[in-house]
Design goal:
Length: 771
Amino acid sequence: MKEEQKTPSAENPVKLLKLELKPAKHWAAGIPAVLAALSDLQEERIAFRGMKALLKMNQRGGFDCPSCAWPDPDDERSPIGEYCENGAKALAEEATGKKLTAEFFAENAVADLASLTDYEIGKKGRLAEPMYMPKGGTHYQPISWQDAFNKIGQHLNALDSPDEAAFYTSGRTSNEASFVYQLFVREFGTNNMPDCSNMCHETSGVALADVIGLGKGSVTLDDFYDTDVIVIIGHNPGTNAPRMMSALEKGKRNGAKVIAINPLPEAGLMGFRNPQQFNGVIGHGVKLADLFLQVKINGDMALLKAIELLLYEAEQRAPGQVFNHDFINENTVGYQAFIQQLSTYQLHELAASAAVPVADIQAAADILRDKKRIIVCWGMGLTQQKNGVDMLKEIVNLLLLKGSIGIRGGGVCPVRGHSNVQGNRTMMIMEKPRQEQLDRLQKVFGFNPPREHGYDVVKTIKAMHEGKVKVFFGMGGNFLSATPDTTFTAAAMRKLKLSVQVSTKLNRGHLVHGEEALILPALSRSDIDMVNGVHQFISTENSMGVVQSSKGMLKPVSDQLLNETHIVCRMAKATLGDRSVVNWDLFENSYDAVRDAIAACIPGFEDYNTKVRQRSGFYLPNGPREGKFKSSISDTRAAFSVTGVPLNQLAADEYAMATTRTHDQFNTTIYGLEDRYRGIRNERRVIFMNPVDMEKAGFAEGDKVDLFNYDDGIERVARLFLVVPYSIPEKDTVTYFPETNVLVSINNTVDESNMPASKRVVIKIRRHQEV
Ligand SMILES: Nc1nc2c(c(=O)[nH]1)N[C@H]1C(S)=C(S)[C@@H](COP(=O)(O)OP(=O)(O)OC[C@H]3O[C@@H](n4cnc5c(=O)[nH]c(N)nc54)[C@H](O)[C@@H]3O)O[C@H]1N2
Ligand SMILES: Nc1nc2c(c(=O)[nH]1)N[C@H]1C(S)=C(S)[C@@H](COP(=O)(O)OP(=O)(O)OC[C@H]3O[C@@H](n4cnc5c(=O)[nH]c(N)nc54)[C@H](O)[C@@H]3O)O[C@H]1N2
Ligand SMILES: [Mo]
């Protein structure tokens, strides 16, 4: 008898837990943060392994925290650990002693696993051996590594064109593995290298490269300690880069003012207690934001222009006192056109559009008026907006007016997400490589890399859906759940001939797969990586362009785990065979050899093997940091941009929705069910609403609702959410991803960077209906 086959769910099960609401917090970190971290480690029954590892995290000679990309201090590091609560949770997640072997997969059909929540799936343990899903299968089966590589090779070689494959990267992959990975993909013959940057800071890269000549931040950690103003816009540091709080605290102690711009009064923007300092653990915290501007979702462009307008008025009253004309004349183009267009705006209209009172905007302008040393930090609140590229150019406009880029204590600071996402890009993980980068590969290796641009994330999904991409290879990550339009993306994944995921933990992406599928278990950052009997280190680049070594120190849960470099080299041999001109055996056996190749191909990495062994690593060259600018219209100057303010009209029954992270998740990895700082306990299916909107719509706290929209003429519905009254501008709402990715149309993308615009999704809300 044929068992009835269930289609594995691409979404979290639609069921509620038991929501508890607490007052939202006004400060971040402190004793509860440390306790939360320790209890997470205990829960994974690895307390001892965990403690030992925590002490090594972000220390010299230790390993780089797998969580965020915030840099480590160059000099003093806390003796009790350079980690935060969320770094500890990230470690607990990957250092768990529980493991998933062939027996687990024999006992659990994929469809049954898919009926669990992401939280439950993540708690199952580390992947411990390679697994294979045959065509028509219901359960993953064990497979040897060599058979797995052969299968990949057979599928790739059977394609009509190398462009029928796509190779995704999430941001934890080391520099060494990233370099060999892109080398293999390009020798195979495609630039289809979508990566998590395509959902994260692509917008920053596009905007900054265009107007200052480098798609990275210009500041270093030391700039935070010696500055006048720090603006934090569209970023939630208390949760997503908690160690940034120490830098903000130190900057404040040295006299900096902090301006926070966000629709939500996030705890980490308001105040801070440092758990790594005695007074932080027991004493009172530091008030963080001197000024909090509670902007409407996507009201930032109007707000930035309103601030600039006030500064321009002040400049007209006192010429030369507010704007830095020497800097503008020497280093920029486009000032006149910028000012001309700026002066066409009306302050009151801009203020209304941002939903920020004029007096507060004036207060911001007053803080900035006489200051030059200004740092602007941003995150997903801006990059995932339709006009994100323009908004970041507007931030650059503001900094150029003040001459704030390329000076001590001033500059741009996109706060990167994954711990090595910036390094991945430096290593040429990108779908749009520059011709001179490919020229260097060609010169060093002697093969002719493909020159045409490949698919980014959104284009990959569409190409899979159309049957143009037939093999998907994921180096880390959770492509299904991280990407938009879950139903559409799941259908795209199911059309593949082969899907392969190199992973550390089981996730939903393994359960919604191609005709055949492979799960390849990899070593993680904290694992000991032995190659030929020698304990290896790898290297990563943080958010400020510092390259450092990282050496794992925990015994891997299984002797079947391979490092990612090794996986790539063996896949390359199985696929390319004698066609290859690259010595994959050499790279498989020596990270030093990989680093020598990187040194030959990538500027700034000369003498890599020596520099990476220095105490605190080394800084990569950074033009804007040194006051050297370029732009798409000048080889020697930065460019002002002329941008517009979006209308953002909503019908009476429509709302803007931003999708965001809780304090208890790392992207699609759900550590726990609390969003402690926002006062949400034991539930993820919530929607934050303004109480005025709730009253107008007739909703009370805890009411059950469905969220829906009709983008592209298709009804998209996210069912069963609980209404939570919250301090948020009217008509704005916030939910958590990935639960609401089902509402983000694949066509709702950021202009120019083509990222999913998941911070402003137009939705309607109705009472929950049982289906
Ligand atoms: N709606 C909405 N969607 C979003 C976002 C949003 O704000 N809103 N944010 C976007 C952003 S900024 C990003 S960066 C993406 C994230 O997208 P991804 O990077 O694709 O997703 P992650 O959840 O970080 O990936 C988690 C998985 O990575 C694997 N993993 C962890 N460590 C390692 C490792 O060392 N090696 C290997 N091989 N695998 C490992 C584990 O199996 C784990 O299940 O999501 C995006 N999606
Ligand atoms: N613990 C933990 N750390 C992480 C991650 C994680 O998931 N967990 N993810 C990592 C990754 S890959 C990334 S990219 C970063 C993400 O870090 P963040 O950039 O902080 O990402 P989000 O959590 O999506 O939060 C975005 C913030 O933008 C605000 N926002 C939303 N819409 C708007 C708007 O229109 N204007 C303004 N001004 N603000 C807005 C939201 O209220 C929220 O505070 O964190 C990294 N670090
Ligand atoms: Mo990210």
